[in-house]
Write a structure and sequence with these properties.
Bound molecules: nicotinamide-adenine-dinucleotide
Mean pLDDT: 93
Structural class: alpha/beta
CATH topology of the largest domain: Rossmann fold
CATH superfamily of the largest domain: NAD(P)-binding Rossmann-like Domain
CATH architecture of the largest domain: 3-Layer(aba) Sandwich
Order of helices and strands: HEEEEHEHEHHEHEHEEHEHEHHHHH
CATH class of the largest domain: Alpha Beta
Largest sheet: 6 strands, mixed
Number of domains: 2
Distance between the termini: 16 Å
Number of strands: 12
Helix content: 40-55%
Length: 363
């Protein structure tokens, strides 16, 4: 991401926590420790110019505190950009709980975490992320109302994320091929989990020629049985003859190795942080003439779904809002062409411009 400008402080005078906060423009970090429950967590509020900072809680077995801090700073900043470009009145935040999600979970730990979230008085709203289940969030909600994505409320965001990816892919196709029809287009979907599975439904319905891959053989078989799509091994996906590559599994799959192989004309998928090195690979995509729909713009359906719960809006509203991702991607690609800069840079600029139009960036 590009430069959100920050305060005049000289980083060399700051410690290992304030220096990255200052460099990335964070407002507030809360370190949470509770020996009774074993809770060790970090909540990072990056920016609240547009509204309360919303972003999920991740539970992960980080090697050390520094790794956890780096992750939460990066992820919370990403949420600021995602929420801003999606025209939501939300800032960006994120939380990480340090620990093994398979062995360390307890009601007490999540309730203690909820009390820490509550001390932020609504400047941070949490939700689930990697390693966290809706049931964990129910425990959090016993201690704070600043939590979304609870069972029986806005629910699983994946269908709305998939809808946004689908319409964003159509906008990218229109830009690249002159038509937004995906009928007959060869589309390779990497990862057919929550989002990828729903995306395949949309693509098959429109008549695309879909190839899928996943590490989960059972899931692959199930989708193949329903739709009769082609299946390849995980490592073979980059060699498939395709018009569109849809990364819906992990980040960083656009890198030196895969760029040497990928024969697609469009990249449009749900995964976060798709470009291993944003500057380098974003520029290479532009030079190769591959149209890239920036990840945080095209996969914003999930946070749109969370926002609907914050504001008490309907599922219909979320669907309508996710459809706007079509015009967001179209305007990013048009502007990238006009300014002759990579599309990721335009997405960053649009997010920054929206924040600057409402307030300052330091933020
Ligand atoms: P998921 O865990 O349900 O599905 C991911 C799938 O990818 C799994 O089936 C997994 O087996 C597969 N996978 C993992 N590594 C793979 C590999 N090397 N090759 C092939 N397949 C592999 O996750 P999800 O909720 O569908 O999310 C997919 C991506 O979209 C993630 O990067 C996530 O961060 C991002 N995202 C999701 C949402 C959402 O609403 N769920 C919103 C925004 C962004």
């Amino acid at each position: 991401m590009s430069e959100l400008k920050v305060s005049a402080l000289d980083d060399s005078t700051l410690n290992p926590i304030l220096a990255p906060m200052n460099a990335l423009g964070h407002e507030h970090i809360l370190f949470c420790n509770d020996s009774a429950t074993g809770l060790k967590a970090i909540i990072a509020v990056h920016n609240t110019v547009l509204g309360p900072a919303l972003g999920g809680t991740r539970m992960w077995h980080y090697q050390n505190e520094q790794e956890a801090l780096t992750d939460v700073l990066r992820l919370s900043r990403g949420m600021t950009y995602k929420n801003a470009i999606s025209q939501l009145n939300l800032g960006g935040g994120k939380a990480v709980i340090i620990g093994d999600s398979k062995s360390m979970k307890s009601e007490a730990l999540f309730r203690r975490f909820g009390r820490f979230v509550n001390t932020l008085a609504g400047s941070y709203i949490t939700a689930e992320d990697v390693g966290i289940s809706p049931e964990d969030m129910v425990h959090v909600s016993k201690e704070t109302k600043h939590v979304v994505g609870l069972p029986g409320k806005s629910g699983d965001p994946s269908p709305i994320t998939a809808l946004g990816v689908y319409v964003g892919m159509k906008a990218a196709a229109k830009y690249q091929f002159g038509s937004d029809s995906l009928a007959g287009k060869k589309i390779a979907v990497q990862g057919i989990g929550h989002v990828g599975g729903y995306l395949v439904d949309f693509l098959v319905k429109e008549g695309a020629h879909v190839t899928i891959t996943d590490l989960n053989q059972q899931a692959l078989q199930a989708i193949q049985n329903i739709h009769g799509v082609d299946v390849v091994a995980p490592d073979a996906i980059y060699d498939v003859d395709m018009d569109i590559y849809a990364p819906c599994a992990l980040g960083a799959t656009v890198n030196d190795q895969t760029l040497a192989k990928l024969k697609c004309s469009v990249i449009a998928g749900a995964a976060n942080n798709q470009l291993q090195d944003e500057k380098k690979h974003g520029l290479q995509l532009m030079e190769k003439g591959i149209v890239y729909a920036p990840d945080f713009a095209i996969n914003a359906g999930g946070v749109i779904n969370c926002f609907s719960e914050v504001e008490g809006l309907s599922l219909e509203w979320s669907k309508q809002k996710a459809q706007e991702i079509y015009s967001t991607i179209a305007s990013i690609l048009t502007r990238a062409n006009q300014e002759q800069i990579p599309s990721y840079q335009v997405a960053n600029k649009l997010a920054e411009e929206r924040i600057l139009s409402k307030g300052s960036l330091n933020i």
